[in-house]
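User: Could you check the structure of this?
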Amino acid sequence: MIAVVVLTHNRVHLLRQCVENVLARASELATEIVIWNNGSTDGTADYLESLVDPRIRVVQHPENIGQNAYAEAFRLTSAPFMLELDDDMIDAPAEWDRSLLDAYEKLPVVGFLAANLVDNPHDQAARVMYHERPHLYSTVVENGVTLVRGPVGGGCAITSRELHDRVGGFRQQRSEVFWLEDEAYIADIEKLGYSAAYLKDTQLLH
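Assistant: Sure, the predicted C-alpha cells are below.
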C-alpha cells in the first residue's frame, strides 16, 4: 500500500533512531521500505546489513547522489502511495503512516501531505515554524481533517503514485547533491491544481 524511501549519508547515529523509533512504528500498510545508502563511510553499510525486517530493501550506492536518489529509489517500488522520510526523523507515534494515508485519502486537492513537526528548538525547520516565522502558518480544517497550511517540507510526506507519475516523478538535478527536491515536486503538482500541507496532529521529531 505504501512505499517508504529513506536516504542516508554518514549519519548512522540518526539513521538507527529513524529505523528503531519511526520505521519500526509504521503500520502493516508500509509494505515496501527502501533505505538508500549514499556512499556512507561511517558504519552505515554494516548497520543496514544487520537489519532483518523483510520489508526493508537496502541499496548500497557507491557514491553520494544526494536528493537525486529519491527518483532512483522510488523506481524500485510499486505501491500506490509513496512516502519520503528523512533519516533524521528520530521519533514518531505508532502507525504514523496510517494517519497520513487516512488523511490523504480524504483530501482530494492535497497532493503532498507531510507529518507535522514536534516543536524542537534544535531543529531549524521546527524553529522556523514555531518561533521565527509562525505568521506564515495557519490551522485549517478541510473535509474533517485538521491541517497546517504554509511552506511545506518533505521530511516525512506522502503522495500518490498516480500523481507522481502524472508530473514525471521527483526531479533530478545531477549537478547538486543537496537541493530542495520536495519544493520542486510541490511546484509541479501545483501546476495541476494540487497543494501541500502538514497534518497537524501527527507530529514527528526532526
